[in-house]
Amino acid sequence: MEKLKYPVITISREYAAYGRTVARRLAQLLDIPFYDKDFVKETAKHSGYSEEEIEREGESMSPASRFMNSLMNNSMEYSSSYDSIFHAQKEVLLQLTKKPCIIVGRCGGYVLRQAGIPSFNVFLYADKEVRIKRAGELEENKGINPKKAVEKHDTMRETYYRQYTHHALGDYHNYDICLNTGEVGPERCADIIASIVRMGIE
């Protein structure tokens, strides 16, 4: 494993913008692990919630759920599953970043910034047409209209991100680099990120 200028990389992304593809190639280039779905099992251990609940609530929230979450949180006796899962994921994330790694989603850049842990924060996006095509290729959307899948995930992911960071997903002020995977291509995006985080590249 080579010495990296930025040993921890976070990848925030629009739905179906090749986030996992970029993370996987970047992990190969830098010889460090990337964490995405792995969060589910680890968070289950820390939170007491099932893997199915974490899959459902660990990075997505509908506007209606956000409203009810905010409303009910005014009650001293109320503890939402969204909040519990978020805090469990936060603890897992902070443990994982004690070693060089790539974190996909989970408000990673925000969590690490709040904890004072340096990281190189990436945002990946693509035109909607590109993402709809990609969504149609994903096994999780089998039998689902890909356009509706993209719109649903966009809304729920953006709502979740705003709930726990108080920022808009994709606001370039919160990232070190934003890359259009549809135009640049996921492999080239990974190459660009790798060249930046390697030691000695300014």
Descriptive overview:
The protein has helices at 19-30, 38-47, 51-57, 63-72, 81-96, 108-115, 128-137, 146-165, 181-184, 186-197, and strands spanning 8-13, 34-35, 101-104, 120-125, 177-180. Residues 63-78 have low confidence and may be disordered. It has one domain: 3-Layer(aba) Sandwich (Rossmann fold). The longest helix has 20 residues, at 146-165. Helices cover 54% and strands 11% of the residues. The two termini are 20 Å apart. A five-stranded parallel β-sheet has the order 2-3-1-4-5. With 202 residues, the protein is an alpha/beta fold. It is built from ten helices and five strands; from the N terminus they run βαβααααβαβααβαα. The radius of gyration is 17 Å and the shape is globular. Helix 1 (19-30) packs across helix 10 (186-197).
Gist?
This protein has helices at 19-30, 38-47, 51-57, 63-72, 81-96, 108-115, 128-137, 146-165, 181-184, 186-197, and strands at residues 8-13, 34-35, 101-104, 120-125, 177-180. By secondary structure, the protein is of the alpha/beta class.
